Structure formats: C-alpha cells, structure tokens
Amino acid sequence: MERSDIIYQIHTAKRAHISWLSHAQALVSGLPLEKESIPIFATDCQFGQWYYREGQMLSSIDEFKAIEQPHKDLHQVYMKIFKLLFTEHKISLLQKILGLASKAKQSDIAMANRLLSQLEHISENMLKHLEALETTINNMNENQWQQLAQKATS
C-alpha cells in the first residue's frame, strides 16, 4: 500500500465525518432528515467503518489512538440528541394513529442545541487529531513507512 493511498483514506474518512456532523446540525436545526441517515453508533458511521477496519493498520501511531475516544464521545453526545428529538414516548397515541411526527418541546430543542455545541467542539478536537495523524504519516521517513506498510500486509 502506498502512502498516498493512506492519506486518501484519511481524507475520505474526514469528509465522511464532516458530512455526518452536518447532518447532525441539520437535524437539530429542524430540517427533515431520515433519522437513519445519521448513524448513532461509532462503528456504524462511515468514519467508524474506516477507523475500525482499514484504519487499524495505523493503530501503532499515537495520533491514530488519540482519535478513538473523541469519536466515541461524539456518538455518545449524538445519542443524547437523538433521544431528545426522537424518543418514541414523545409521540402520543393519536399522533401514531394519524401518522403525525412528534414535535420536540422547546426545552428539548434548547438542550439539543447545547449538546450540538458540545458535539461540534468534540468534532474539532477529533479533526485536529486526524490532521496530526496525516502530518505524522507525511513526515515518516521511508524506513518508518515501510515498517508500517509491512505490518499492514502481514
């Protein structure tokens, strides 16, 4: 595997994360989205799929390891937002019968916005770790890179 392939994977994973975040922002702002379009669990989103699969070849790099906790934290905060906005008990029987969507209470929306701010802060932190990872990979000498690439293929 070439270094450029890994950098491309990191860029693709970063774009997937940014897209996920923009969907979360749209959801909190009230734009209609399929709730399935924003994966709740860290292993279900596109970024998580890369991180826990192909990205594992980078698991010996400290900057890679530093990404996992913020990524998990993102999904924990998003889970709170999701519950505020989509918990089934917020839908009355009449709304279910009529097929009407539940409107979140103002207090829930305010809390979701506070959580969104927290989500954005965690995202910034995670993106900084991704940039540091990219820098580390770009700054590896050829011997370091070959050792890493060899681990990935074995």
Q: What coarse outline follows from CA principal-axis ratios?
A: elongated
Q: State mean pLDDT (0 to 100 scale).
A: 85
Distance between the termini: 12 Å
Q: Give the number of helices.
A: 6
* SSE order: HHHHHH
Sketch the major β-sheet.
Answer: none
Low-pLDDT parts are 93-101
Structure description:
By secondary structure, this protein is mainly alpha-helical. The protein has one domain. The protein has helices spanning 3-28, 46-52, 62-86, 93-98, 106-139, 142-153. It is elongated.
Topology (elements, then pairings):
Layout: H1 3-28, H2 46-52, H3 62-86, H4 93-98, H5 106-139, H6 142-153
Name its key features.
mainly alpha; about 150 residues; 6 helices
Task: Summarize it.
With 154 residues, the chain is mainly alpha-helical.
